[in-house]
Design a protein that fits this description.
540 residues, Rossmann fold, 20 helices
């Protein structure tokens, strides 16, 4: 009851000018605000960050650019601030724009938002004059009718946001989540478009570039023809993915692959990538990878065959993605959704009792909120015949054991498709994934092509197994995707441990510049050069 009264009071006060500002002045809480919005660690280290950025800039030889860095949500504001000061250390003129949001999926009362805004301004003020800042909660543009291309962008991003938040593919514009995200995205489009038009930066730097306000800012830069860089982090420490004038979550490896595909892997490189997959198979981490990709070590092919009661009929492994994962958004080729592809594929196999279909639901679905690919399977076929098997997300089954008994693989965008190709298994790719059309997968462009190909493969699976050259290409691609495509970068979104290990003074030392220097230049639009042997990495 007390919480309800407090919430009602905040809603009331949030609509009265200067109430939040007066409250902030009276309370003067040095630790920020009593919400989920927190910048405490950034506030603590800001003097050190500023001092080291100032010192590093004195020795910078880069001509520098006028850079606009954007962030929303408190943890991204922290990461973007450190990145912005790194760009300052390299002699760039940087403006940090932000929204002081605690969450992307639920609204806050205006009273708390205004307090979070004041708190953020106070924290970032310590970086002045090294970086200029602009709060788009304060710097709101007057309402104008947006160009159609921008309106369409707002709608597209809102659909992605709803899919991402609810982990579902079919979206109703009447849903509260859609309407909330549309309101926020429209506001961002209005305000940031106005600012970009007025200030005309040389380059825009934004995380992700596909969803939320990040997706809006990316599309605004593209609309205004301002060079825009997007970045994101995987499970590798001291590395990031970088997209130049592209959404990084699309993982466009074309430039890298064109530069590297004709050169053979060295013995050391081949051993390195083989060791990586051996560690993944045994549920271990390797090098700078922090994630265990399996819940248990390999138990052996026969163990999994017995546990699933599989016989000698050919095995088809269908590996799903997590619904709403940002690596699946907008990746349709011939199906309307991933769920439609899974559903129609299952129905196809009803007529093939001579084949055993194993559906591996992504283990990440343990964390799904509501709808799951398990539901898609049940709705498609409530009673499964004995030759169709579903492995639930929580089941302790090693995916690599499944690969060992697989004759044909079916995937949407999951990396499991690439891993099957390493074993010579023919893989049919239904979505726009980074390894599609690289010479070692089968890539239909229509339902007719898909089912025709599937029928031919099922009738003579051995004829479609990859040859030695294709397998070698798959290993080469895997090496470069895991060890060349991620560029050296000191500060992950899991920021503060990285920062303690990589202070600005260290990053911009002679040794640090050799490792990270190219990445900072690429981040402000210097063209990526995939022909460089290591782009700052240790040669291997």
């Amino acid at each position: 009851m007390a919480d309800d009264k407090k919430s009602t009071l905040k809603k009331f006060l949030g609509n009265i000018p200067l109430t939040a500002e007066l409250y902030w002045l009276v309370r003067r809480n040095p630790n920020g605000v009593n919400t989920r919005f927190a910048l405490r660690r950034l506030q603590e280290v800001m003097p050190e960050l500023v001092s080291e950025a100032k010192a590093a800039r004195k020795t910078a030889k880069f001509a520098g650019k006028k850079v606009f860095v954007f962030a929303a949500i408190h943890y991204w504001i922290e990461q973007a601030t450190v990145t912005a000061l790194g760009l300052v250390a390299d002699n760039n003129d940087v403006t940090l724009g932000y929204y002081p949001y605690a969450d992307w999926h639920q609204d806050q009362n205006k009273f708390d938002l205004r307090r979070q805004n004041l708190y953020t301004q106070k924290v970032l003020q310590a970086a002045s004059p090294l970086i200029k800042t602009v709060s788009f909660l304060s710097n709101r543009a007057s309402y104008t009718i947006l160009p159609k291309a921008v309106q369409d962008a707002v709608t597209e991003v809102t659909v992605f946001d709803t899919q991402y938040t609810l982990q579902i593919e079919d979206v109703d514009p009447e849903w509260p989540t859609y309407q909330f995200r549309y309101k926020r995205n429209l506001e961002a489009a209005q305000s940031v478009l106005d600012w970009l038009r007025t200030n005309k930066p040389d380059v825009v730097v934004v995380p992700n570039g596909t969803i939320l306000e990040f997706g809006i800012v990316y599309r605004l830069a593209k609309y205004l023809r301002i060079p825009v860089m997007t970045y994101e982090f995987s499970d590798q420490k001291e590395a990031f993915w970088l997209g130049q004038n592209a959404e990084i979550m699309r993982q466009d490896t074309t430039g890298m692959w064109n530069a590297r595909k004709d050169a053979k892997l060295t013995r050391e490189q081949l051993k390195r990538i083989q060791t990586l997959f051996e560690s993944r198979q045994q549920a271990k981490t390797n090098e700078n990878f922090t994630r265990q990709w399996q819940s248990l070590p390999s138990q052996g092919a026969e163990t999994v065959r017995e546990s699933l009661k599989l016989d000698n009929r050919p095995v088809v492994l269908l590996a799903t993605n997590v619904l709403g994962d940002s690596l699946t958004l907008g990746r349709q080729v011939f199906s309307k959704t991933m769920a439609e592809w899974v559903s129609r594929t299952i129905l196809y196999f009803i007529g093939r009792p001579d084949i055993q279909l194993v559906i591996r639901i992504h283990p990440g679905e343990i964390l799904t909120r509501e709808y799951s690919m398990v539901d898609v399977v049940k709705q498609t076929l409530p009673e499964l015949p004995e030759y169709i098997h579903v492995i639930q997300p929580e089941e302790k089954v090693n995916t690599y054991d499944l690969i060992e008994i697989t004759d044909i693989g079916l995937v949407y965008t999951t990396t499991v498709g690439l891993e099957m190709a390493l074993k010579g298994i023919p893989v049919v790719v239904a979505g726009k994934t980074h390894y599609r059309e690289r010479g070692f997968t089968y890539d239909p462009f229509s339902w007719v092509d898909y089912f025709k190909l599937l029928g031919a493969m099922l009738n003579k699976p051995r004829q479609y197994h990859l040859n030695k050259e294709q397998v070698n290409q798959a290993w080469k691609y895997a090496y470069h995707f895991f060890y060349t495509f991620p560029l050296p970068f000191p500060w992950h979104i899991k920021l503060w441990q990285d920062y303690e290990e990589h202070k600005i003074s260290q990053v911009f030392s002679k040794e640090g510049k050799r490792k990270y220097g190219n990445s900072f230049r690429y981040l402000v639009g210097e063209p990526l050069d995939w022909s460089k042997p290591d782009n700052g990495r240790k040669a291997s």
